[in-house]
Amino acid sequence: MEKEIREIGKKNKIEKELVIKVSKMKPVIKPTKPHRHEGYHELIFLNKGSGHHIVDDNKHEVRPPVGFYLNLGQVHCWDFSQIPEGYVVMFKEEALTNYPSALNNLFRLHDKFNMPRQDSNLMEQLDVFYRDFKANEPLELLSAHLNTLILKTVNLPALKDNIHPNFISEFSRLRRLLNENYLNLRTSEEYANLMKISTRKLNQICQAAAGCNAIEIIKERLFIESKNLLTHTNLPVNEVAYKLNFSDPSNFIKFFKSQSTLTPMEYRSRLLS
């Protein structure tokens, strides 16, 4: 009997004509399959529920009040043990055209952040945001809600180290370009050319923002996608290499081992142990 190929699914929960959507968490505890949302970001705020949220290869315990952030294309799934309650805010980057600082601050968020237990202002703001969305209020108002929400969220605990404001915008731009081009562009020079800056300047930005040079940031993005495909699909290693645009499976194996000290098959076998 031919083996069924298991791949990472895609979901699109925001209608084509919308740039912002606010919805309540579904009151169900059925586990979801690993999938990605392409073309939009998600902010999730939970005040009830328990279980686990898996983002890429990181397993987070759900202990409300808690929030989660999903960047473009990240793979995730839910496994609730108690019915969740809260809000999901989905948005395309064009929603923040008038708020560039909010867009730049997104990459400072971890996959998971802590919400203040005693402060109800955040959930009250989400209540108003949801009502305004359901009332078809104009995009200008909804974008203003989103801007305020991001600025509040970025000051919650469990954020990455503060980055000098001179580098926030350019590093954020690099991260967005990586999400769009990591399968085809692999060198610092290529990204520097896209950003119309020198390779030296790009490395300065990466050192200030992440403590490493640009090529390490580029490799990290490709490595994350490698782990997603090895973890959430049953594709053979040579097919994973093909999907990641490696010219030969042996080159993919060398790359993966250089990032983890494990071969792709060893990595997979540890997931099952």
UniProtKB/TrEMBL annotation:
Residues 172-270 form the HTH araC/xylS-type domain. InterPro entries: Homeodomain-like_sf, HTH_AraC, RmlC-like_jellyroll, RmlC_Cupin_sf. Pfam families: HTH_18. It comes from the Bacteria. The keyword Transit peptide does not apply. Keywords: DNA-binding, Transcription, Transcription regulation. One of its GO terms (molecular function) is sequence-specific DNA binding. PROSITE patterns: HTH_ARAC_FAMILY_2. This is Transcriptional regulator, AraC family.
